[in-house]
């Protein structure tokens, strides 16, 4: 074991091999008690956390953070592969070989020198090949149940569109949104809470389809809108504190006036008249 431990600092050993070696040592009887007790299930929260931190680094456009967070995420991947290897299922190299082969077979237009495809055609081909290879029983198979609902809506629409079941353009989706808004109004008048939930769900699904047609990722768009709202609301709170009054002592019109002033101070903002207009 001491010889193995000395190899982790060997500069001639490729980083990928060193990472696998470090993980195997940590999981060994001479390793770390915490690492030894982990399972696939116990590591789920850490895998999710590291994935979100990668996303945040990307959204912050911070290359140094992204490098670090990708390393942390890779550590989680190797951790799971090490656990699987100990059970005789597969190892990290097997996982890498699997994705290499998948990338080759899913890109015949590149590796078999077929006709060049546009980006959307590549997506559609990918989905068709998955079904043709018997990997998925349905076009909609393979979407994790834990995926955020808005992202899942986007991906379901994308997958269905890949086989031709889709609105032809964004204008038709606008029509669908108008239809869904009318149905929400009818559900409100009927005082049927279960139907109202269903209609709002249909509206949100249609909204995700509009985003997809306009080539906007809805989860990212919503997160940015929420970040913008939080920043402005913090400014609103600061204004209220400086006034030495409580929120309930302001009328909605007064708060809206402050909001619009804060909004006008932000680069690229357009004037609006509704607090919900971010």
Structural notes for this entry:
With 278 residues, the protein is mostly helical. The longest helix has 26 residues, at 218-243. It has helices at residues 2-7, 15-27, 33-37, 44-59, 63-86, 92-105, 108-111, 119-132, 149-162, 170-190, 193-213, 218-243, 252-264. It folds into three domains: 2-103, Helix Hairpins (Orthogonal Bundle), CATH 1.10.287.1080; 149-213, Orthogonal Bundle (Helix Hairpins), CATH 1.10.287; 234-264, no CATH class. It is 69% helix and 0% strand. It starts with a helix and ends in a 14-residue tail after the last helix.
Radius of gyration, taken over Cα atoms and rounded to an integer in Å: 25 Å
- What's the total helix number? 13
How would you classify the helix and strand content by structural class? mainly alpha
Terminal residue distance: 59 Å
- Low-pLDDT parts are 268-276
CATH superfamily of the largest domain: MazG-like
The ordered string of helix (H) and strand (E) elements is: HHHHHHHHHHHHH
Strand content: under 5%
> What is the number of independent domains?
3
* Helical fraction: 55-70%
């Amino acid at each position: 074991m001491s010889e193995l431990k000395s190899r982790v600092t060997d500069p001639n050993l490729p980083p990928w091999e060193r990472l696998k070696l470090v993980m195997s040592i940590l999981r060994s009887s001479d390793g770390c008690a915490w690492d030894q007790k982990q399972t696939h299930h116990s590591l789920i929260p850490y895998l999710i956390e590291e994935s979100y931190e990668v996303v945040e680094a990307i959204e912050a456009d911070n290359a140094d953070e992204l490098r670090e967070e990708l390393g942390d995420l890779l550590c989680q991947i190797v951790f799971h592969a090490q656990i699987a290897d100990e059970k005789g299922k597969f190892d990290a190299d097997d996982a890498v070989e699997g994705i290499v082969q998948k990338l080759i077979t899913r890109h015949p237009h590149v590796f078999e020198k077929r006709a060049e495809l546009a980006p959307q055609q590549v997506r559609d081909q990918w989905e068709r090949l998955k079904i043709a290879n018997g990997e998925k029983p349905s076009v909609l198979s393979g979407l994790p149940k834990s995926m955020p609902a808005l992202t899942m809506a986007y991906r379901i629409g994308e997958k269905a569109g890949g086989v031709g079941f889709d609105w032809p353009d964004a204008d038709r989706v606008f029509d669908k949104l108008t239809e869904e808004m009318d149905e929400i109004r009818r559900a409100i008048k009927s005082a049927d809470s279960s139907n109202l939930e269903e209609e709002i769900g249909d509206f949100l699904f249609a909204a995700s389809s509009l985003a997809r047609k306009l080539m906007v990722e809805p989860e990212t768009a919503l997160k940015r809108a929420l970040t913008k709202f939080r920043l402005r609301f913090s400014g609103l709170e600061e204004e209220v504190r400086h006034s030495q009054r409580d929120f309930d002592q302001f009328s909605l019109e007064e708060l809206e006036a402050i909001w619009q002033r804060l909004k006008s101070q932000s680069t690229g903002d357009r004037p609006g008249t509704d607090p919900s207009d971010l």
